[in-house]
């Protein structure tokens, strides 16, 4: 008796192919946003470290050269002096004169005011853009709190992502309002914020860990 041999079947049927593609699509839909988010965070973290390094170096050079004279907490003159140090060091390409910051600071998250509205703002802050495209502002034109948007006018324009705070510090790494005590630049917010706060509206804000990592 002759035996009929069944031909072996290789490859996938159309149904199997569609099922496989569907599974791949589901996995991609779940993992791709996470991968993109992690990649963006890596870019934000690198830019944050660079901004911190640059402003710290600028102030340390000014301290060494005895260029800073602040002796009070609130002073438009001393804040302007400190901003001038940064403008010269970073090579300013745009200056927002008369405290009209719109051409140097994108609309987005502000801080220090009620319901997320506050500073930097027109008539109360001074800003400039450096040659790398970063936007720098005073939080308030009398104070020595300096904020940076590391990617200029690009989104997301949020503190803890592309916007950060810096202040001059003393030898104990505490914020100082006396130039005679300055040792460099430190963090205005010195710990991470995992939940919403007045200084972090879109947590997590990795103020400290992104510099240490």
Describe the structure.
The protein has three helices and six strands. Helix 1 (14-64) crosses helix 2. 33% of the residues lie in helices and 13% in strands. The chain has a six-stranded antiparallel β-sheet. The longest helix has 51 residues, at 14-64. With 213 residues, it is of the alpha+beta class. The chain has one domain.
Features:
6-stranded antiparallel beta sheet, 3 helices, 213 residues, 33% helix, single chain, alpha+beta, elongated
Give a brief outline of the structure.
By secondary structure, the chain is of the alpha+beta class. It has helices at 14-64, 76-90, 209-212, and strands at 92-96, 127-130, 135-138, 146-149, 163-169, 184-187.
**Class from helix and strand fractions:** alpha+beta
Return the domain count: 1
Shape type: elongated
Round the Cα radius of gyration to an integer and report it: 25 Å
Total strand segments? 6
Keywords: Membrane, Transmembrane, Transmembrane helix
Pfam family, one: N_methyl
Protein name: Type II secretion system protein
InterPro entries: N_methyl_site, Pilin-like
Task: List the topology elements.
Elements: H1 14-64, H2 76-90, E1 92-96, E2 127-130, E3 135-138, E4 146-149, E5 163-169, E6 184-187, H3 209-212
Antiparallel strand pairs: 1-2, 2-3, 3-4, 4-5, 5-6
Helix pairs in contact: 1-2
